[in-house]
Amino acid sequence: MADFVNCAALAQSAGYDGVEVMGSEGYLINEFIAARTNQRDDEWGGAYENRIRLPIEIVRRTREKVGPDFIIIYRLSMLDLVEGGSTADEVVQLAKAIEAAGATILNTGIGWHEARIPTIATSVPRAAFAWVTKRLKGEVSIPLVATNRINTPEVAEGLLAEGYCDMVSMARPLLADAAFVQKARQNRADEINTCIGCNQACLDHTFAGKITSCLVNPRACHETELVIAPAETAKKIAVVGAGPAGLAFAVTAAERGHDVTLIEAANEVGGQFNIARKIPGKEEFGETLRYFRRQLELTGVKLRLNTRAEANALADEGFDEIVLATGVSPRTPEIDGVDHPRTLSYLDVLRDEVPVGKTVAVIGAGGIGHDVSEYLVERHEPPSIDRFFRTWGVDPEYKTAGGRTAPQVEPAERQVFLMQRSTGKVGERLGRTTGWIHRAALKMHGVVTASGVSYNRIDDQGLHVTIDGAEKTLPVDHVVICAGQEPLRDLHDDLVARGCSVRLIGGADVAAELDAKRAIDQGVRLAAAI
Amino acid sequence: MPYPELLKPLDLGFTTLKNRVLMGSMHVGLEEVENGFERMAAFYAERARGEVGLIVTGGISPNERGRPMPWGAKLTTEEEAEHHRRITDAVHAEGGKIALQILHFGRYAYHPDLVAPSAIQAPITPFAPMPLPARRSSRPSPISSTARPWLSPPAMTASRSWGPRAI
Ligand SMILES: Cc1cc2nc3c(=O)[nH]c(=O)nc-3n(C[C@H](O)[C@H](O)[C@H](O)COP(=O)(O)OP(=O)(O)OC[C@H]3O[C@@H](n4cnc5c(N)ncnc54)[C@H](O)[C@@H]3O)c2cc1C
Ligand SMILES: Cc1cc2nc3c(=O)[nH]c(=O)nc-3n(C[C@H](O)[C@H](O)[C@H](O)COP(=O)(O)O)c2cc1C
Ligand code: SF4
Q1: 3 state SS of B59
Q2: CB of B148 closer than 6 A to ligand 2?
Q3: pLDDT in tens, B57-100
Q4: ipTM for the assembly
Q5: In terms of DSSP bridges, do strands B130-131 and B16-17 run parallel, antiparallel, or are they unpaired?
Q6: With left for phi above 0 and alpha for psi between -120 and 50, is residue A74 left, alpha or beta?
Q7: Which residue lies with its CA nearest to atom 5 of ligand 2?
Q8: Which of A338, A396, A403, B145 has the lowest CB atom count within 10 Å?
Q9: Band of residue B142 on the pLDDT scale cut at 50, 70, 90
């Protein structure tokens, strides 16, 4: 307790306007509060009154020490989402006591780190947990802050207008765009770079001991090192391919004053992101495309859609630099019968929406293989908070301690077998903080997974495999191939031969382990330097 | 005005926030690196310039044992507080406000000297916590990193066992 008070006093002496006492997420203070983790028999354990003594005393003594003119926020775990968590009434009781102890603002904490319910991933509908904060309205008179997946000014405004809270907390949305509030105030919300909840460059980094950044904004936490300054000499630059890499490069280079032409074969920008956003739970990815489309307009990039770039024509236009961001092409593994009509590529399924039968084998259990499996087993509906809570077992009535209930999973749309050639756990290499969600979602829908599989043949009977030395025939309607990708860079050598200055970014550079984080980062970094 | 509720000032009595946006706490990993304070100052200042009503820093431990890992950021001395001036000055220069989050990791800490109310290990950590002594606790002894060379930063980075499964 003394250490908390001392820390607050030091923060005050360092010029901070206040402190936030972290009392949620399953950290020390929360551990005292929950019966799950507090089995003490002294005055800090036992009855609820005793278990909440620590936070109350910390706030009270801190207030005593820092005086009246210093902000004390208390982050209260309003929904633990673990067994042995607080009840709804206990949360109200604690909130009142914390107010009385001298807190200025009550912030919301949702879920412990060890809870098995997603609370901030992309698949969590926007503002899904704001109702938890609303339950305290009228119970306390200090401002209440709602949190988690509030990522647009519209959503934030709606919560405030409808009386859910007095403030909104946005964490990751301010990694994605530092000027979020300013753009909202200036009625430029369509220019906001929206957080898509992927966690790939923020939380995944944090929990790997790396510096946090942001997939859609590589400058986040790298402000001093990745500087976008006006170019000394404006160059005439061609960018081929309007996927995440090409878009990021084009708008950043144009912002610096270069004369940029962006050439795209398809009738829209976005590349593979247009496919990713079709996966249930990845609808947010569409925001990134909206952002880039708007930035193209604002920066004056010359966009040529429906144009497949050819080496000769490109070389003749006299560009100072040519950037190839042409992405990847799916790899077709050498399997006997791979050209059988029941074989599809993930592009056939996701991009071209070819009808798929009721039993499906998915070959390749990387990120795309998992996404395709989710696409095939889940019903396709716009995100809904009710449905999300039903599926994962959150009780919006808050009748149980911790707020959990039994999950009710909708029957799967298809029977899917997800397989990989390599040994080891299926889905092991997915994102650190989100991989478990994908694995759990597939398990809920009865997806059968197997590793160490050799694919023998595809024919009229289905897919023939060997698993653990045993031969099996899976009588599936379709086999969907998600077996990696190759860089697509056929223009490269021709352009170099013609004396052009050519650079490769994104999948066109390296296809292995490709994700949009690398594609965008590479695009922005090259644009900052060119 | 667009978003009238979002942009409405919030009067706290002794001070007023310019709007209803609180930047949620994020530990960003700069807390522990070389030039970290300078980089955090630039990071937070840019958000203040972007007109965030109130910024909250990432969690900083109030003592040795509450740190996420042995070299994790703490604020326990005036000398440490001095470094934070860089951040608060930079944010104030942009007309922003900023609060420091005090976060004691308890049994989620990734080092063997972790403490908790009771000796119950978290399902997501490799170490069991020591229960805090009853009533008035004596000051915990500082963690000696030389005594445990395996807890150097690279070892931790390489570890795969650390990480929440539930966010
Ligand atoms: C289903 C699915 C889910 C995904 N989920 C995620 C995720 O959750 N997180 C993540 O980080 N990444 C995800 N990805 C991967 C991500 O989309 C890619 O890493 C990223 O799009 C690669 O960007 P790129 O710009 O290098 O290439 P691409 O996005 O492939 O873009 C290349 C573009 O170049 C164009 N082009 C090619 N040749 C020419 C030519 N000669 N002339 C003109 N235009 C040309 C193509 O039409 C295309 O638009 C997902 C991908 C898929 C398919
Ligand atoms: C990289 C990262 C670090 C975080 N560190 C902290 C922290 O130190 N203290 C804390 O209370 N919450 C922390 N959080 C949780 C956020 O404060 C917030 O609750 C969460 O990101 C959900 O809000 P959002 O959807 O607005 O991002 C962190 C989140 C991220 C993404
Ligand atoms: S990395 Fe993804 S989740 Fe994290 S802030 Fe950026 S967009 Fe949001």
Answers
A1: strand
A2: no
A3: 999 999 999 998 888 999 999 999 999 999 999 999 999 999 99
A4: 0.94
A5: unpaired
A6: beta
A7: B26
A8: B145
A9: very low
H helical segments located in A140-189: 153-161, 172-176, 180-185
The two three-digit tokens of residue A305, written as one number: 């859609």
| Chain A residues near residue B24 by CB distance under 8 angstroms | 107, 147, 169-172, 174
Residue matched to tokens 């965030």: B52
Please give the single-letter amino acid code of residue B159: S
- Picking from B103, B78, B57, the residue whose alpha carbon sits closest to that of residue A6 is B78
At residue B27, what is the residue type? H
- From chain B residues 110-129, the ones with a CB under 8 A of any chain A CB are 115-118, 120, 122-124
pLDDT category at B143 given cuts 50, 70, 90 is very low
User: Token pair for residue B104?
Assistant: 């004691």
- At residue B162, the 3 state secondary structure works out as coil
Which candidate, A344, A267, A343, A351, places its Cα nearest to that of A305? A267
Q: What is the pLDDT of residue B126?
A: 85
Q: What is the rounded CA–CA span in Å between residue A458 and residue A453? A: 14
Of the candidates A201, A174, A171, the residue with the CA atom closest to the CA atom of residue A516: A201
pLDDT(B20) > 80: yes
* Amino acid at site B28: V
B131 contact residues in A (CB cutoff 8 A): 40
pTM for this entry: 0.93
Q: Quick one: pLDDT at residue A98?
A: 97
Task: Tell if the CB–CB gap between A73 and B82 is shorter than 8 Å.
Answer: no
**What does the pLDDT look like over A397-435, one tens digit per residue?**
999 999 999 999 999 999 999 999 999 899 888 988 899
Indicate whether residue A22 lines ligand 2 (CB < 6 A).
yes
Where b means 16+ CB within 10 Å and e means fewer, A6-44 reads bbbbbbbebbbbbbbbbbbbbbbbbbbbbbbbbebeeeb
Cα distance between residue B40 and residue B34, in whole Å: 11
Torsions phi, psi of A18, nearest 5? 180, -175
Strands (DSSP E) along B4-133, which ranges? 10-11, 16-17, 21-23, 54-60, 98-102, 115-116, 130-131
Euclidean distance between CA atoms A453 and A402, whole angstroms: 41
What B14-18 contacts at long range (C-beta under 8 Å, 24+ apart), as own/partner pairs, is: B14/A68, B14/A69, B15/A17, B15/A69, B15/A71, B15/B97, B17/A167, B17/B53, B17/B54, B17/B97, B18/B51, B18/B53, B18/B95
Which of these, A491, A432, A481, lies nearest to A206 by C-alpha position?
Answer: A432
